[in-house]
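INTERNAL AUDIT FORM
Audit reference: QA-55
Scope: verify that the stored structure record matches its stored sequence.
Auditor: D.O.
Record contents follow.
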Amino acid sequence: MRVVALCDAKLAAQKKLLAGLEELATACRDLVKDIDLVFKLASRVVDAAGEAASTVKDEDVAAVYDRRAVSKLAKELDARRKEAVEQLKAAAYFERQAHWLLSRFPDAKLIAVPGLVKLVDRKEIEAADWSLTPGRYVGVAPTEVDEDFDFERILGDIHVELADLNQEAAVLAKKIHKNFEGLGL
């Protein structure tokens, strides 16, 4: 009886920790969005500054604006962004895994879960001609629906990114055309 009480106490503590982890995972997802937005805005500032510096013929501006140094800093910023995003995504990943585990085994006891595990006795194994192929007993897991997936928001984000990329492509095409004209081609 003492073991059961100890297990119940640990399970209650785990569920309480999962609730805190859910808050942390939500905050991490929000931070990933914020980091990506800040990086995108910083990239736009760098591009605008580079374009402004290239149109000005003043040597003082050229001396101050070092295109290589700025490019190097932009690459370093992107690497740091990726590193931070991966760390933040790891917290969300562990929250999903803990939630998955506790949702399938809420009482911390082994129970039959379609597509994952099934308790069988020797008679059932004998009836299956002693086959120990898991699929014979476990079956197929029901399809899962991602409740957190916001199709409209994702589609909107993709649309905004596509519009930005199209704008950038148009600017680059003009630059390429101008450079060809400068070469006399």
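Auditor finding: record pair retrieved intact. The radius of gyration is 28 Å.
Action required: none
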